[in-house]
Amino acid sequence: MRALSATGDGGLVEPVRVPEPSAGAGEVLVDVRAVSVNRGELHRLTAAAAGWRPGWDFAGVVADQGTSGDAPAAGLPAPGTRVFGIADGGSWAERVAVPAARLAVVPDGLSLERAAALPTAGLTALRTLRMHGDLAGAGVLVTGAAGGVGRFAVQLARRCKAEVTAVVGRPDRGDGLAALGAAEVVVGVEGLEAEFDLVLETGGGESLREALRLVAPRGTVVSFGNSSRASTAFSVSDFYPKEASLRGFYVLNDLDGPRTAADLAYLAGLAATNELVVDIAATSDWRDARAVLCRLRDRRLAGKAVLLVTKEKQS
Ligand SMILES: NC(=O)c1ccc[n+]([C@@H]2O[C@H](COP(=O)([O-])OP(=O)(O)OC[C@H]3O[C@@H](n4cnc5c(N)ncnc54)[C@H](OP(=O)(O)O)[C@@H]3O)[C@@H](O)[C@H]2O)c1
């Protein structure tokens, strides 16, 4: 089958032929129709050796169920079912085999294109927001708010009745964030003086330093990205008297538990009824993946980018 693979030389990705995957016990084989692109994949592709295969998010149609010996595939979605989810890698391909615990059915009213945009960014937003407990009335600061995770985080925080401040890099990057639920949209964090109960921090460098300054006493900073690729120096003696928490988060660490399928189904349910807006900034044929990755790298996408996995023309 065809897949996208790292070039290892700065070219980011190229199409290659790879062996067909097969579904093991508890897995399904998915005929992939759409995948989404995450900044984390861009970072990895920039450094990856040739042959490394990217791809966490996918949406498609079940092609086959794995069996355990002669045991029936109880509980697995049947062939033909529309599903979406998150793989350990390698989903930028015609087919991917994934544990059933990492996927959910795509409900009516949600396209495969929009479903593909949900898993990594949606789960990250949902799970980082949960790290502070009850958010009703809480002040939440979302850095990188124009991006894929950021747009979901703004909406999900507002659903929990938080007061959301969204941080963007340029004024035009803030377009649409108020409609998604941000009470305030600011360009950079430098001028802010308010204290925040929860800060979702992905800028790294100076942005993380400012987050540690702005977190409220007993508040929480969740650091889960370093888009700037810069290191952070901060004044510990300004930070520890607040008894605030600095916590890390990595979405791929906790995907095999019982909650992933339920969280995916929750996000898909909201998206199907437009209670969660899936802002897709670019949809392209997967053969144009490199151009999409370059736009993501250059901060020219405000929202998610989706690649459509098209069939090969028969000669
Ligand atoms: N730990 C995890 O499990 C996990 C999971 C998902 C994502 N992440 C991380 O979370 C961050 C957001 O991911 P995403 O997929 O939503 O990315 P994205 O769509 O590219 O959004 C990132 C946003 O960050 C802003 N940004 C601020 N400083 C930047 C810089 N120096 N370089 C590039 N962008 C900068 C950009 O907005 P402006 O142009 O408006 O500034 C951009 O919209 C990334 O750092 C990613 O690696 C981590």
Automatic annotation (TrEMBL):
<protein>
    <submittedName>
        <fullName>Zinc-binding dehydrogenase</fullName>
    </submittedName>
</protein>
<dbReference type="InterPro" id="IPR036291">
    <property type="entry name" value="NAD(P)-bd_dom_sf"/>
</dbReference>
<dbReference type="GO" id="GO:0070402">
    <property type="term" value="F:NADPH binding"/>
</dbReference>
<dbReference type="InterPro" id="IPR011032">
    <property type="entry name" value="GroES-like_sf"/>
</dbReference>
<dbReference type="InterPro" id="IPR020843">
    <property type="entry name" value="ER"/>
</dbReference>
<dbReference type="InterPro" id="IPR013149">
    <property type="entry name" value="ADH-like_C"/>
</dbReference>
<keyword id="KW-0560">Oxidoreductase</keyword>
<feature type="domain" description="Enoyl reductase (ER)">
    <location>
        <begin position="11"/>
        <end position="307"/>
    </location>
</feature>
<dbReference type="Pfam" id="PF08240">
    <property type="entry name" value="ADH_N"/>
</dbReference>
<dbReference type="InterPro" id="IPR013154">
    <property type="entry name" value="ADH-like_N"/>
</dbReference>
<dbReference type="GO" id="GO:0016651">
    <property type="term" value="F:oxidoreductase activity, acting on NAD(P)H"/>
</dbReference>
<dbReference type="Pfam" id="PF00107">
    <property type="entry name" value="ADH_zinc_N"/>
</dbReference>
<keyword id="KW-0521">NADP</keyword>
